[in-house]
Amino acid sequence: MAAPATGVLPQSIDETMAMLEAQDYLAGTALATVLFLALRMKRPLFLEGEAGVGKTEIAKVLARALDRPLIRLQCYEGLDVASAVYEWNYPAQMLEIRLSEAAGTVDRRRVESDIFSERFLIRRPVLQAISGESGRAPVFLIDELDRTDEAFEAFLLEVLSDFQVTIPELGTIRATEPPVVIITTNRTREIHDALKRRCLYHWVDYPKATQELEIIRRKVPGCNAALSREIIAYVQRLRTIDLFKNPGVAETIDWATALTELDRLALDPETIADTLGTLLKYQDDIARIDGAEGRKLLAEVKAELLAAG
User: Fold this and answer.
1) 82 and which of 87, 133, 173, 255 could share a cystine (Cβ 3.0–4.6 Å)?
2) Alpha-carbon dihedral angle through residues 45, 46, 49, 52, given to the nearest 10 degrees
3) Strands 70-74 and 171-174, bridge-based pairing
4) Residue 215 falls within a domain, yes or no?
């Protein structure tokens, strides 16, 4: 089925899959279904999974496919309202007060009303997301929510329930049209049930070998076909080993790109040892694979591909 025109919401699950595929994002039926429902029901989509499996990319793909702005709130420990929602431009407010004093203005109520107006308001991602224009509400990515604390989660409940933000000096600002909300978490801690209940949920897993091979074909078109098969077989086997951090799809793409830049046509122990830093990000994992276990793994991959023809 053909993808819907850019900027048009998909009208079926098949159209949703086609829309994602047109942006070189390969999604299974389960993901396409929950994404279609999130768009139709105007509910936030909560995506959970290991780092590097493509959760963040879904929001980027949606923004491109729907021709909408992407607003990203990158979460971190200590994130507060001033950084995430809004703050007042204090230097500009102070300057306005000084100018009013210099002009002899003594009406304190008028000065106060003026400095707490829209022109002194700095809109951070949350406020930007609910201030989108009707018919083109943004895609709002709340990335790695598990990095924040429970206090910020509690604040998000109002946003996700009613798509509104209350500013004491201005009142309540409501979205004329709810943004498309994508929330991601790497599950380093559990997110409260109250927030999850406001969302549709999907676990994003590592892709199967055939799917990941197609991803490499699309993302690294210069990669030799035989080398691509070896890369995918090797990475898929790596993920069965008890590593500190399994390589994600992003690392697979990086490794394929690196090997292509080095003009490699096949995997060998020396090449793997020299390029493991693009695939694995922890020294203990690299040391484990850069040895007898890694050579055994490569031999098994070669034998498996040879047997498969």
Assistant:
1) 87
2) 60
3) unpaired
4) yes
> CA torsion sign, 43 to 48 to 51 to 55?
negative
Count of CB atoms situated within 10 Å of the CB of 133: 10
> At which of 180, 203, 226 does a domain end?
203
233 and 291 share one domain: yes
Are residues 43 and 187 both part of a single domain? yes
Residue 35 located in a structural domain: yes
Residues 31-70: tens digit of each pLDDT:
999 999 999 999 999 999 998 899 999 999 999 999 999 9
Contact 141, 70 (CB under 8 A): yes
| β pairing state of 121-123 and 86-88 | antiparallel
Averaged confidence pLDDT in the chain: 91
Token pair listed for 139: 């895609």
Cβ neighbours of residue 236 under 8 Å, at least 6 residues apart?
209, 212
Distance CA 143, CA 140 (A): 9
**pLDDT at position 106, please?**
63
Q: Tell me how far apart the alpha carbons of residues 127 and 130 are, in angstroms, rounded to a whole number.
A: 5
Contacts of 269 (CB under 8 A, 6+ apart): 294, 295, 298
Using the Cα atoms of residue 163, residue 165, residue 166 and residue 171 in order, give the sign of their dihedral: negative
How many CB atoms are closer than 10 A to CB 100?
Answer: 17
Q: In terms of DSSP H, where are the helices of the chain?
A: 13-22, 29-41, 55-66, 81-84, 90-102, 108-115, 125-130, 150-162, 193-196, 209-219, 225-238, 249-261, 269-275, 283-289, 292-308
Among the listed residues 218, 233, 215, the one whose alpha carbon sits nearest the alpha carbon of residue 54: 215
Q: Are residues 46 and 60 in the same domain?
A: yes
Q: How many CB atoms lie within 10 A of CB 93?
A: 17
Residue 156 lies in a domain: yes
- Residue at token pair 């780092």: 51
